[in-house]
Amino acid sequence: MSNDSFFVVIEGIDGAGKTSIARALYNILRQTLGENVLLTEEPHNASLMGAEIRSALRQERELGPVELAQAFALNRSSHLRNVIECHLRRDNAVVICDRYLLSSLVYQTRDEITMEDVYQINRWSRVPDLTIVLQVSAHVAYQRMDERSRNARELFENDLPTRLKKYKAGIALLRAKGHSIIEVDGNGEISDVFDSVVEAVKRNKPDWLRLQPPLLLE
Fold first, then answer.
1. Would you call 215 helix, strand, or coil by DSSP?
2. Maximum CA pair distance of the chain?
3. CA dihedral 166, 65, 39, 145 (to 10 degrees)
4. Degrees (nearest 5) of the Cα angle 1, 164, 105?
5. Under a CB-based contact definition with an 8 Å cutoff, are residues 107 and 99 in contact?
6. Structural domain boundaries of the chain?
7. At what angle do helices 138-148 and 160-176 cross, to 10 degrees?
8. CA geometry: angle at 143 spanning 139 and 146, to 5°?
9. Is there a contact between 75 and 47 (Cβ–Cβ < 8 Å)?
10. CB 100, CB 77: distance < 8 Å
11. Are 198 and 25 in contact (CB under 8 A)?
12. Which helix (H) or strand (E) holds 7?
């Protein structure tokens, strides 16, 4: 972990509450750091291959398993170079990213491409200072997705029990490669989950980073 920047990733299956938690963490960090905090996500629409990936996720165009993994890697490379690493060059800078490398290990593995294959395609990626994984049951995740949208689900928003197994394998792989990963129970009320995330950040943050007490979530 560097002394003057902090790169934190929020991960979890679809319906885990990643986006709400990432936004809430961004809001409390802005109280002390202002514009030095950046909230971003992957896939990153404005980066290389962003439009093609979104089209594939909406099942409007077909990409093979290897093509999709390579498209995400190109998108990540562009996102890192032009957005994340540019921001982290500031003094006391924080980047919060909704999904990152762990998602690639989970969602882009198939019979044709293994988890280690996907890791190797992305082996140059910057290692986050902290990855927080929101662990929820498939039942809770499906319930949240149904409440969020009645539209057709995207490409990967099905077969969540299989995704959960892959998350366990992906976490083990990244931990073996030196990644700092904290798992948080995400099944409860979003405010309680957020409190647990804040505690995880407090235990793993750099000394210069101050957090205000959490405000009520919007």
1. coil
2. 47
3. -60
4. 50
5. no
6. 5-204
7. 110
8. 140
9. yes
10. no
11. yes
12. strand 5-11
pLDDT of residue 109: 93
Amino acid, single-letter form, for residue 117: D
Residue with tokens 């969540």: 160
DSSP code string of 186-214: -SS-HHHHHHHHHHHHHHHS-TT---PPP
Output the six-digit token pair for 187: 């099944």
Tokens representing 217 are 């979530």
DSSP-based three-state secondary structure for 216 = coil
Residue showing tokens 């902090």: 6
Query: b/e string for 95-128 if b means 16 or more Cβ within 10 A?
Result: bbbbbbbbbbbbbbbeeebebebbbebbeebeeb
Would you say domain 5-204 falls under CATH 3.40.50.300?
A: yes
DSSP-derived secondary structure for 44-103: -TTSTTHHHHHHHHTTSS---HHHHHHHHHHHHHHHIIIIIHHHHTSTTEEEEEES-HHH
CA distance linking residue 115 with residue 121, whole number of Å = 10
Residue 154 clears pLDDT 70, i.e. is over it: no
pLDDT tens-place string over residues 31-64: 999 999 999 999 999 999 999 999 988 888 888 9
SS3 40: strand
pTM of the complete model: 0.89
How far are the Cα atoms of 116, 163, 184, 198 from residue 190, in angstroms, in the given order? 33, 21, 12, 12
Collapse the DSSP code of 32 into the 3-class scheme (helix H, G, I; strand E, B; otherwise coil) and give the result.
Answer: helix
Q: Cα separation of 39 and 32, whole Å?
A: 15
Length reported for the chain: 218
